[in-house]
Amino acid sequence: MSRDEEEVPAMAQQQLADDVGAEPRDVPFNVASVVGRELEHVQEAVASGHLSSGGPFSQRTAQVLAAETGAADVLMTTSCTTALELSAMLMDLGPGDTVIVPSFTFTSSGLAFARQGAGLLFCDIEPRTLGLDPAHLTTLLDETVRAVVVVHYAGVACDVEGIREVMAEWPDVRLVEDNAHGLFGAWRDEPLGSLGRYATLSFHETKNFVCGEGGALVLNDPDDVERARVLYDKGTNRHAFMLGQVDKYTWKDTGSSFGLSDVLAAYLLGQLEQREVVQGRRRRLHEHYAASLAPLAEELQFEVMRVPEDRSPAHHMYYVLLPHRDRRNDVLELMRKAGVQATFHYQPLHASVAGREFAVRPTECPVSQDVSDRLLRLPFHNELSAADLDRTVDAFVDACTATLWDR
């Protein structure tokens, strides 16, 4: 039975439920979907007997990602978090070292470096792309800083030009791209993931391309590849042994068990094989939201997300900004009551308990706090139907209209 044939009964059941007056199903915020040959590849991986990392599917998946980003090498990892941890190990970070991290990001962007003993400095974001603010970055750089982490929020490139200008004065500071949102996006003609010394990717079930839990470390400098392979293989030169470069392998360095199971890599390959289809679907979702909401933004007092002309977004999400926290929360509550599962996003790291503990010194990040209070994310996934989109837009507009009096 084909996938389309499997879906017909479910669609018929939903129509029947609607016809008899049942409540329509909720519009979920996220759905992880099968888009290609994922299950076929998983069966092949299981049948092969190679279930651990480093198998043929891991190799094929890494090759796809390296070709798309132009990387010197790509290491498939168990998560984006572990990929960040591997980058921290490559830099031999420790006490006395500092890493600059955006305050408006997920905990892993800072946790991975604090775990190695480095201190953190939290940088504010700029309001256009919600990426690292070069003006604030300038005030934070000093002789203790070993790395700067950037995040391409929602898959829209941060102010790369501004950050490069600032970092040109600090050539020994490494740029790390936390590219969890940005795979297949670009800044001008440069792929996101190719801009830093290292870049990390996420294949968590909430991302554009998924395998449940998974990630990758993108190595853009060939000089990093040999040591990264040793750290990746639990501190051994196993990779050199597998290539026939040494007659046995042994313990060479620190490291850990970072490798992604070949079963999960097989599932991920099925997703990546459909990358043009998936990205096309998500682009159309973005365009629908933008076309429907932008004309109403001034009247209903909200802001739509912005994509500068020199960016090609990865279409990871679509967000809007309400005037203040109370109205954002009221709109969220009304949308959820209408069966549309919208949500908020990050709480600023600089104000968190762990952020204050690991920070070298306190920093002010007012834009991060403001955006955190006002941002609302709309449902965004590969399975959204035209009816789901219309229902989401209607629920958002109705909620905005109902809360408009609260200025």
Q: Which descriptors apply to this entry?
A:
single chain, 407 residues, alpha/beta, seven-stranded mixed sheet, three-stranded antiparallel sheet, 16 helices, 13 strands, 41% helix, globular
What would your notes on this structure say?
The protein is an alpha/beta fold and 407 residues long. It is 41% helix and 13% strand. It has 16 helices and 13 strands. The chain has a 7-stranded mixed β-sheet, sandwiched between helices. The chain has a 3-stranded antiparallel β-sheet with strand order 7-6-11, with no helix packed on it. A 3-stranded antiparallel β-sheet has the order 10-12-13. A hairpin with a 2-residue loop joins strand 6 (186-187) and strand 7 (190-191). The chain is globular and about 75 Å long. Mean pLDDT is 93; it is low at 1-20.
Summarize the structure.
With 407 residues, this protein is of the alpha/beta class. The chain has 16 helices and 13 strands.
Largest sheet: 7 strands, mixed
- How widely separated are the two ends? 55 Å
Poorly predicted runs of 5 or more residues? 1-20
What is the number of helices? 16
Mean pLDDT: 93
